[in-house]
Amino acid sequence: MSLKKYAEKRHFKQTPEPAPSTPEKARRTPTKPSVLQFCVQRHHASHLHYDFRLEVDGALKSWAVPKGPTLDPGEKRLAMMVEDHPIEYGSFEGVIPKGNYGAGSVMLWDRGTYELVGEASAEEQLVRGDFKFRLHGEKIRGDFALVRTKRGKGNEWLLLKKKDAAAQPGWDPEDQARSVASGRTQEEIAQGFPAADPPEPEPNRALA
Ligand code: MN
C-alpha cells in the first residue's frame, strides 16, 4: 500500500484532510490483528458520491461509489477504485476548501469494523479481484463482496450485498441523512454548523 498518490493530490496547508503519517506510524502495531476498520463518507464534491474504505495493511483501500452502498442484495453498485487513504482519514469529516482536490463537504456517513470472509488474505483477495467481507457498521452490516469487472482500466468494481439476515430489499442509503460522528446533515457540515450536543448522560443513581 502506498500513500504517495494521496499525498501528491493534496496541499496539507490548504485542506483539513489528514496528512499521511510516516510509514512506521501508519503501520499500527497489530495488538488485535482481527479488528479492521471500515468507513463510508458521503462526499458532496463536483458530483455527489460515497467513498467506501476498508483497512488493509495499514492504509484504507478506497472506492468511490456514485450511488452509495446498499443493503439491497438485488442491486449492483459501481465502485471505482481510487488512491489509498491514510488510516486517519477514517475519522475525517469537514469541508475541503474550493480549489483543492475533492473540494466540497465530507460527511462521516458510517463506520465500524469488518472481517475478511474466506481463507485468502486481503492482498490475495484484492489481486484476484474478489474481495469478500462482513461489515459491522452502524448503518450497514452483513456480508458484502467487491468484484472487479473486465471493463475500464482495472479500477472498475461492483459492490454487492449478499443475501443474509442483514439484507433489506429496497434499502436506500439516501434515507440515512445524518453523520454517525456528529449527527449533522450534509448541508450543516457544508455550512460549518457545530456538531450536535451529545446525549444527556444517565443520572448517577449512586449519588441521588
Ligand atoms: Mn470522494
Distance between the termini: 54 Å
Ligand inventory reads: manganese (II) ion
Quaternary organization? single chain
The portion of residues forming beta strands comes to 35-45%
Strand order of the largest sheet: 1-2-3-4-9-8-7-6
> From N to C, what is the helix and strand string?
HHEEEEEEHEEEH
Low-confidence runs (pLDDT<50, min 5 residues)?
Answer: none
| Major sheet description | 8 strands, antiparallel, barrel
Round the Cα radius of gyration to an integer and report it: 18 Å
How would you state the average pLDDT, rounded? 91
The structural class is mainly beta
Description:
It is a single chain. Helix content is 10%, strand content 36%. It starts with a helix and ends in an 18-residue tail after the last helix. Strands 1-2-3-4-9-8-7-6 form an eight-stranded antiparallel barrel. The protein contains four helices and nine strands. By secondary structure, it is mainly β. It has helices at 4-8, 23-26, 122-128, 186-190, and strands at residues 36-44, 48-56, 59-65, 76-86, 94-96, 104-116, 130-137, 141-148, 156-161. The protein is globular. The structure holds manganese (II) ion. Manganese (II) ion binds next to strand 2.
